[in-house]
Structures
1.
Amino acid sequence: MTGSRRPVGGLIDRSKMLAFTFDGARYEGHPGDTLASALLANGVSLLGRSFKYHRPRGLLAAGVEEPSALVGVGVGGRFEPNTRATDLFLYDGLTAHSQNRWPSLALDVGAVLGAFGRFIPAGFYYKAFLGKPDLWKIYEHFIRHAAGLGRPPRESDPDAYDHRAAFCDVLVVGAGPAGLAAALSASSTGARVMLVEQDDRLGGGLLRETARLDEATPDRWIARTTRTVAARGVRILTRATAVGYWDDDLVTVAQRLTEPGQSPAGDAPAQRLWRVRAEQVVLATGAIERPLPFEHNDRPGVMLAQAVRGYVGRFGVLPGARTVIATSHDDAYRTAFAVADTGGQVAAILDSRPACDRPIVRDAMARFPVWFEAQVLRAEGGAQGLRRVTARAGGKTLSFDCDLLAVSGGFSPVAHLHMQAGGALDWDPISGAFRAGQARQHQSSTGSAAGLDDLGEVIRHGWAAGANAAAALTSGAPAGSPPEVSERYPGPSHAVAALAAPDGVDPKRVFVDFQNDVTLADVDLAWREGYRSVEHLKRYTTLGMATDQGKTSNMAGLARLAANEGRSIPEVGLTTFRPPYTPVTLGVLAGHAKGFHVAPLRRPALYATHAAGNPLWQPVGYWMRPRAYPRAGENLHAAALREARTVRTALGWVDVSTLGKFEVAGPDAAALLERVCATTVAKLAVGRGRYTYMLREDGMVMDDGTVWRVGADRYLLTSSTGGADRMAHHLDYVRRVLAPQLKAAVANVQEHWAGVAVAGPGARSLIAALAPELDIPRHMSADRSVIGGVDVLILAASYSGERAFEIYVRNPEAAAVWALVAEAGVGLGGCAYGLEALEILRIEKGHVVVGGEIDGRTTPYDLGLHRMMNPARGFVGAAALQRPALQAQAGRQQLVGLESAQPIPEGSMLVRQAPGAAEGHVTAGGVRVIGEGFVALGLLRDGHARLGEPLTAWSPTRGRSAGVRVVQPLFYDPQGERYRD
Amino acid sequence: MIRAPLTEHKDLEACLAEIAGDDGAVTDISGAAVRCAIRGRDWRILLTHGGVFDAEAAEFRPGSVAGTVIEHMAVRFDVIAKDQVDAYVAPSFAHDLFAYWTSVARGLDVRG
């Protein structure tokens, strides 16, 4: 194939030149070129090597359906592999490389695999599993090395990505003739319209045509229409591909703001993901041309006929000097005229249909040799290009010297988004294509996506689709009428199905899926081996599983399967179209959430104060909390143990601001809380509180915390940090759905109150020093006071097992109170402590925690909390707790304590003897804060009945184990004397 | 949304509590929200980023309030005037939300 730039023509900007490189060689092109058209114009026809057999490959298509011309583009962190050269618009300095070849594209060592094709058909690696399993370790190394196409970059991506939402009345997907007509009519009614187009300019198929619309050339009509709809406020996006159609008419659109490998300007993002919510969606997504099945149909020089016409009309490039056209419909004749009118030779037109007498055929016969009932048997050529085509026509075998074979086996409407939206497909047996049928959401298909191929009909249908979509939403009728189309050869293309290979061709040489090197022989092999479902055919052969998702291959594979089965294609069925329609980058899916910003960071009120102390941080959901405050020479363990011992012997203070906190107020506040909490609440006196826990509706423990009566009709409920959002939803659910009759309001005060917990033998002295006027509340009492001129609420509660108080203060004033606590506390021999010390302390006291012992599978009985249950049993989950399986107790995982002379690995299995079957696991492991030895909490089958039993805590993945003894889950101050006055 | 001068908020609280009686409750949540004032012609475009919220709807006009999620952060909006909207977010998220909007605004495509 010897492509060349024509001296005139095309929609490129010939006044400017752009320099680019391909495999290190420097070339030039024009703005408006794709990499593919620019390479063709420079006479480059070899663009890649196929996946398995390393066959030389050129361009098949001109758009996103291109299966073979995949390149790596860009440098460093901007490098993007597997980029279609046909979907990459030229920019100055573009750097591209071919893939899957060594040492070079022209001379690729991997091509020897072609000689071993009979040994590596579809599914050969499954068969490698038969026989000696050890040999697979040898095969695997080579298969992995050979697998894949491009290589991902190793450097970090420097670009920014963006997410944005848009809402509209009518979303039009595709700005070809039908889409533009739909946008015209819909926008004329005053509807809010959005128009998205994956190309870098509007027009679609019009960009290669010569018809006139409202007496204007296509480019002029497109420009005029664009101005009209833009003036009406239509949001127009180019380089924007609708990649997914989701529930409730949500369509995701991936927009390239820069081309692959190109640096964005300034702080602009490289790509943007639009989440578009539309009332109505018009799918004007066009149709994809199908290749023909014959031997070596993948050779460089074999191209789709409309693609050839596109390169001529849009890019001013003639892909070959001497062309043969092979077709099953009238449209390809337009390609013959386009080639000839731009100075190329047309050696022959091979039409697979019987002779016919239509104007376009008659005019072609007057200019070129035309054969009917003709089929291509074989293409001959190689890395240097196409040389010859052999065909059968009229019972004779004919041979044509050529360097370009333009093929067309008909068109497959792009129904992907329609199917993603749950739509059904209808089958047209004449043209051999599926097209959009019954819609399930508010989508409609138009133009060639609906199976139409007469331009006038496409325009009228598009206009009507836009009008109908808008009519559902506005009261206005569309202004104006559909554009008038005049073309030399109006009417449909009379396409017939051409999916079957000619008799006598070798199926091993007929390619179906170009990107994955799947041949007709592979489809036959799968069928012979029993893979007769279309889903099995796909997975066994990988037909349709490459990055092009079978856009040019699915139908040929289905046709062969149907022929083998003796059934029709619709009976065989079609695999499911899934998003994305074309590959999307992980960057555009991530958007802003990369690096440190994968999720927002929640900073508690004391964040800056903690940061000044250089703590070790612990992410807790979105929060960052101090894990420990190591001093010089301390690691985490040493710091945490020092802090915990300081709490036990003197005094410590910890930030508890992140706890869930809710104020429940109103005449029925207690009643509401007794629906939520599994313990009694109504009997609390003002100023008193208690430990409580909450169940899910299935009876499992959901969260725990404390509840305090802070006023006659007002309560403060606390819950865990990690469960705060869940508790907020739960409270709302109970209030609005389960008990709407109760007069109680719930306010989330999690960030109204910051909290500092002070614990230890010196805690009482600290409070007395800070609030000398206060009558120190006894354990589980609450009172208000003033510290340093700041109003505070003091709750006497202990999580550590020592005498303790939680000082609640308004968020903005937290730092001041913390400073006062720290100043006074240091004087009493105390220190700040973090989550690690808190964990060690709570393990000693057997206090359960959400995510550890409260793991969604444990009931109050399992955790030993049942004695606190409200006997009235009116709380959420009470009914489910009555289920026999939860009442039976036998066989359940129950909370136990474990002690050992060795460290007990957290998360390890509890077994009678290692190795052995797991009978439970260690939920949390720590050390004795005072004294020697190690302790842990765990969940053990029938644990309550196994006290004293020796077991092994076994972690085979970490190669650790420890002998443990099952004990009560309480290792420190069993009588609770430490926290009572 | 009721706006009142800071000096009058205690009186307002008492007044609301009296109005609510047994049919409602007034709870002090001061300090639990940070206000971000967004000013400028293109604030609607800014608010289309990072969420699925129709900030461009004509109905979202001065006097409107709305709650949504922007980049995982719950935010409430109060449209003050044609070119002014206030956003309220939990203090723990304020730093990141402000940083997010600042970075989006730098690369804002106001062509829409």
2.
Amino acid sequence: MKNHSLATLGRFRRKRTLGRVWESMIPKFLLACALVSVLTTLGIVGTLLKETISFFTKVSLFDYITGTKWTALFNEAQQSFGVLPLIAGTLLVTGIAALVAIPIGLASAIYLSEYANPKVRKVVKPILEVLAGVPTIVYGFFALTFITPLLRTILPDMGVFNAVSAGIVVGIMIIPLIASLSEDAMSAVPRSIREAAYAMGCTKLEVALKVVVPAALSGIIASFVLGLSRAIGETMIVTIAAGATPRMTLDPTDSIQTMTSFIVQAATGDHSFGSIAYGAIYAVGMTLFIFTLLMNLLAQYISRRFKEEY
Amino acid sequence: MSAEKAIVHHQRGKPTPPDLSLVEKRESSHFGFRRWKNRCAHAIFLLSTMVGVFVLGALLWDVVEEGWAWVTPDFFNNFASRLPEQAGIKAAFWGTLWVIGLTIPLTFILGIGTAIYLEEYARKNRFTRFIQLNISNLAGVPSIVFGILGLTLFVRLAGLGKTVVAGSLTMTLLILPIVIVAAREAISSVPNNLRFASFAMGATQWQTIRRVVLPYSMPGILTGVILALSRAIGETAPLLMIGAVSFIAFTPGYALDAFTVMPIQIYNWVSQPQAEFQHLAAAGILILLAMLLSMNAFAVFLRNRFARKDR
């Protein structure tokens, strides 16, 4: 766009040479590259839709949405496809993760943006970046071999696989995301507004909580939503640490199963292509996709709609 | 408290405006409480920030303690085994190198191509906005959904089977949004003056991009690509979906071989009940983390090295 007028100027009085043909091919090739990501989206939606629809010709959609028993991997006679236990498990882990990540993430963001001197920032920010780059399989190992034994010294009757350990570690995983996005939102608040509050005699805490956080609220809330959407889609931590027992429970010490860990369990078992259990992978995948897509769109909407312009 | 002292001290000094100090005196006890609250909050915020640091320390300590003794030359030279003493990470290590090796050129071409298109060629119309919205939403799709896509599209529909190529293609699609965002940022940071100067010399648009825009933005692009690749190295779920299996007793010889990668080998070890396999998992994690940290360090080095130049 920005160079368009210059490009048309160049077209003036130049002969149609090999170079010109090359020059006109380039944008088409680059457009093709850009279309790959559009095709990826279409591919995701297409494959999920196709297999999900064929799944729902065998299982009623109503039973799927309202059923409270999920035994998709049992033999045919005992199969029952009520997705609510998987959703409950996912939300339980996400809720625990939110309890861990939202206060700590927000407090870290406030510290880094309002309190920390440049030297501390220079040390702490890369550490948070490293934490964000740790593979989820490593977090899973950490949950199983560190957090779970630690919790079991407090609650000895708790099982090895439980929702709380997975939830805490998922929360730890999304702390850097929430902290860095919230901090970005806070640093976008103009300095002059802070200075005005300081001139009125505010303490740092008052400036942070009564001026900066409200001014950056849309970005902060958007970071929460994005972080939780990441928690819903997290796979390896819950597969390793939360167990594989789909059940409706609010007890965080129970072993549960999330949507993602069901998908892993079903795909790594030997279920033939075309069986109902195999179709369940796509139905649950579609449910997961809709959940995360809605949350991502919500985050975008919040940060656009309620953005404060300075 | 210290504010009160300061005020007393202030009053001993000569030229204080009297009305101001009176106001402060009246307010001072309240002010002291506010300062105290501020100090408490400071401590709480600092502690919260330190949680991340502590966790990273605990995590590293946990992995090193469990796995350090198991990182031996044999660990690199052995294939997976039922016996923990004979198990090693050779197949997984080479599998990871194969997958990443094929992913690099694909992401490079597609990612940078898309970024150049969006930054340099695309007009600001609905279609361009649609592509952008699409990319930012793809970045939020859980990786396991990409695994489902890869399983359906590459493994089954394209008939590639559970091979290195299918894994690389899935990984490419997964990290493409990250690369595109980083490359766009790098390209849009090139000053327009440079482009105009190049056009003024009679260069075509593509010549300008190739000789001016790309060299200038390459450090930023490379940093983004390396960070995206380090994400790809650690990804487990999508490759688990497309069926990379963990008991493989050979290194991939060509792109249509079956394969396993390090995170999957680690996952397999973690899910074994015996304690020895936990040590193997920790040893595998140490190798994985060493690879990731050196890649991240290289990315940071690139960023610092070239950031100083001519800005």
